[in-house]
Each structure stands twice: as structure tokens, then as C-alpha cells.
Design brief:
OB fold (Dihydrolipoamide Acetyltransferase, E2P); 10 strands; 3 helices; alpha+beta; five-stranded mixed barrel; single chain
Length: 201
């Protein structure tokens, strides 16, 4: 009898232990996979500072050099180029400062200039300059002003040039609105009109 009760007790004990183990396993939280500390890839942001975004428009043209205004600027009379301004004062780069400071280019000289247009308001900055013997410009002949001067249009701008003595007769016989190529040289002074020394139809 005692042996039977002992076996019954052991069976009950085993059932209780087994049930406890079973229930503890059910309520034990399941191990979750650890999250990576590396954040997920984000789409590349657009680089607003890419080289060239601040690049300024560069223009080449011919001009008559008048002289220095101060240490940072000089005066020119543009002869052609994609300029859409009426002023004649230009800022000058450090390289151009050295050239002009050495008086290697005298006043009243025809030059080929390269300048940067500002993004907003302000004057252009000349970054390169080279002396040339004469300027060539394509124009439309508007007509004579008198025996010595004629008016022309180029790139939407009006110009008045002096006529060389030997060319006066050809201009007197010329009809307005003709397209011409003029060869120009400086006048007697920086403030004088440039002189037409040759004309091609």
C-alpha cells in the first residue's frame, strides 16, 4: 500500500514539475534579433555646392583702355562684346593690376579683354587683358552725322566713329542699313571717338 502511494506521489510530483516547466517556457520572452546600429541607407542629398555652380559668365571683347581709376578698377570704352551695360568702370583682377601698374599698356590703347559678369548687381571684373593694334567690329551703318563722323549699330548699341579722310567719299555714297566690318584705331586722345581706318562690305 505504501509503495503504491509513493508511486502515485512521484507521478503527481513529476506532473507538477513538468507543468511548471511548460508554463515558464510559454511566458518567457522570445529573444528578439538585435537591431543594427548602422542606420539604413538614406538617399543621397543633392550637393548644392558642386564645383561650377557659382561660375560666373565670362565675356570676351575689344575695348579702348582709358586709364586706372584707383587700385581696384580701371576705365574702358567697350567696342564690342556681349555687354548690356552703359558704364565704363571695371574691377580688375590681381594679374591685370600688375600689368596696368607697370604701364605696359598705355592709355588710349585698343585691348582685348576678358571679363566676368557679376551674378547680381555690380560692375564686371577684368581677368585678362592684351594689347592689340586695331579693333574689328561688325556694324550696321545708320548714316553720316557730318563730314567727319558716322553712326553705327552693333549688338543693339549705338556707336559714333570718326571717318578717316581717305574713306569719307565712300561713306558719302553709301546707303544706310548696310552691314559693314570696320577696322578701328584710337583717336587723338582717350576721350576722342575711335577712327575708322578701313571698311569692308
Amino acid at each position: 500500500m505504501k509503495q503504491t502511494m509513493l508511486i502515485t506521489f512521484l507521478i503527481i510530483a513529476l506532473v507538477v514539475v513538468g507543468y511548471s516547466v511548460y508554463t515558464s517556457q510559454r511566458h518567457e520572452p522570445v529573444d528578439q534579433p538585435q537591431q543594427s546600429e548602422i542606420p539604413p541607407d538614406k538617399p543621397d542629398k543633392k550637393d548644392d555646392n558642386k564645383p561650377g555652380d557659382d561660375k560666373k559668365d565670362t565675356v570676351k571683347g575689344q575695348a579702348l583702355y582709358i586709364g586706372l581709376i584707383d587700385n581696384n578698377s580701371a576705365e574702358f570704352k567697350p567696342i564690342d562684346g556681349e555687354h548690356d551695360f552703359d558704364f565704363t568702370a571695371f574691377y580688375i583682377s590681381e594679374d591685370v593690376k600688375k600689368i596696368l601698374a607697370e604701364d605696359s599698356i598705355p592709355s588710349n590703347t585698343v585691348v582685348l579683354i576678358e571679363y566676368e559678369m557679376p551674378k547680381g548687381e555690380g560692375n564686371p571684373t577684368i581677368i585678362n587683358i592684351k594689347e592689340i593694334d586695331e579693333a574689328k567690329i561688325k556694324v550696321i551703318f545708320n548714316g553720316l552725322i557730318d563730314n567727319n563722323f558716322a553712326e553705327f549699330e552693333a549688338d543693339g548699341k549705338m556707336y559714333v566713329f570718326q571717318i578717316k579722310q581717305e574713306l569719307k567719299e565712300s561713306f558719302e555714297q553709301m546707303e544706310p542699313k548696310q552691314q559693314l566690318t570696320l577696322t578701328l584705331k584710337p583717336g587723338n586722345s582717350p576721350m576722342a571717338n575711335m577712327l575708322i581706318v578701313d571698311v569692308e562690305k
